[in-house]
Design a protein that fits this description.
It is a single chain. The protein has two domains: about 1-225, Spore Coat Polysaccharide Biosynthesis Protein SpsA, Chain A, CATH 3.90.550; about 235-315. It is about 40% helix and about 20% strand. It contains eleven helices and 13 strands. Strands 1, 2, 3, 4, 5, 6, 11, 12 and 13 form a nine-stranded mixed β-sheet that branches. The radius of gyration is 19 Å and the shape is globular. Belongs to the glycosyltransferase 2 family.
């Protein structure tokens, strides 16, 4: 069994593989690199086999998104390739740096209760700024709005070493996610119904409900292009983010909360957020929000069954950030992580 497997999920991403895979291979520290291809329509697989013979290529039969694709790929690594103690789930549009692996691997090996960890994620284009997808570790407010050390909504901080520590967080980003393999499979992997976006937050929440911890490691840094498969301006991304957030909240909100008042408040705030899209003339995003809400309603019976099952296995309560991030950011003008948590 390998200690660590670096796994890149690819879908029509040959340009990113050409640009970033050489550095991944050069800085793999002897750990195997896998590319799991989700039935790409470009010539990614031909390119990989011709150019990177040392990379282990897994050809998946169809595109099942980030969630289903990684579930299938990691299960194949476990059953066919001998498995690994840890996985690194690495986006194809990530630029790694020298010594990006060892600090996190050391953290995981010396803290057996930590089951997921991320490095600092900085912007590939504006290299001193933290990047949207995870920054220096993520949190979740009581209504399910995500924020990060280094990024709150559309405000991105400059990295000047303020988050170079190692510490627990609520969620670690799927852009560069180190996970303990046995616990990943113990939890059944990602929720494949999410397809893409927020599945890693849902997984981190479920892991913490079993008493495990999620951390961020400030001694490791990578750079992320962002939007490599689905650009942030794409309405389908809006749909997935709004829909999956509702899926995650309904499943995981504590049993002792007033569930439906919180759901209705969140649905109302989602509706109000469409004003921002209206001002920008992004009508398709408004339609995407409506579609997301109706998808949530249609999924309620299955979500309710998942909620009950998770409550039966839960070992510990998970505490969300107790204030409203929306109010602090838009009402009080608190734009940075330190201002918010103060």
């Amino acid at each position: 069994m390998d200690t660590l497997a670096i796994v890149i999920l690819n879908y029509n991403g040959k340009p990113f593989l050409e640009k970033f895979l050489p550095d991944v291979v050069a800085n793999a520290d002897g750990h195997p690199v896998y590319v799991a291809d989700s039935a790409s329509r470009d010539d990614s697989v031909t390119f990989l086999r011709a150019t990177f013979p040392a990379v282990r290529v897994i050809e998946l039969p169809q595109n099942e998104g980030y969630a289903g694709g990684y579930n299938r790929a990691l299960d194949l690594i476990r059953t066919t390739y001998g498995g690994a103690t840890y996985y690194v789930l690495l986006n194809s549009d990530i630029e790694v740096t020298a010594n990006w692996i060892q600090p996190i691997l050391t953290l995981l090996e010396t803290n057996p209760n930590v089951v997921a960890c991320q490095p600092k994620i900085r912007s590939y284009q504006e290299r001193q700024l933290f990047e949207h997808a995870g920054a220096a570790g993520g949190f979740l407010d009581w209504l399910g709005y995500v924020f990060c050390r280094g990024r709150v909504f559309a405000t991105f901080e400059t990295d000047h070493g303020q988050y170079d520590d190692n510490r627990p967080v609520f969620w670690a980003t799927g852009a560069c996610l180190f996970v303990r393999a046995d616990v990943f499979h113990q939890l059944g992997g990602f929720d494949a119904d999410f397809f893409a976006h927020m599945e890693e937050i849902d997984w981190c929440w479920r892991a913490q409900r079993l008493g495990y911890e999620v951390w961020t490691c400030g001694q490791s840094t990578v750079y992320h292009v962002g939007g490599g498969t689905l650009h942030k301006s794409n309405p389908h991304k809006t749909y997935l983010n709004y829909r999956n957030s509702l899926f995650m909240l309904y499943k995981n909100w504590p049993a002792n909360v007033w569930l439906w008042p919180k759901v209705l408040l969140r649905l109302t705030l989602d509706g109000l957020s469409s004003i921002l899209f209206l001002k920008a003339g992004q009508w398709r995003d408004i339609v995407a929000i409506l579609r997301a809400h109706f998808a949530f309603y249609g999924r309620l019976p299955a979500l309710h069954r998942q909620r009950k099952a998770l409550q039966q296995t839960q070992r510990t309560e998970v505490i969300l950030y107790p204030r409203s991030l929306v109010w602090q950011y838009f009402g009080e003008g608190k734009k940075t992580f330190e201002e918010v948590i103060k």
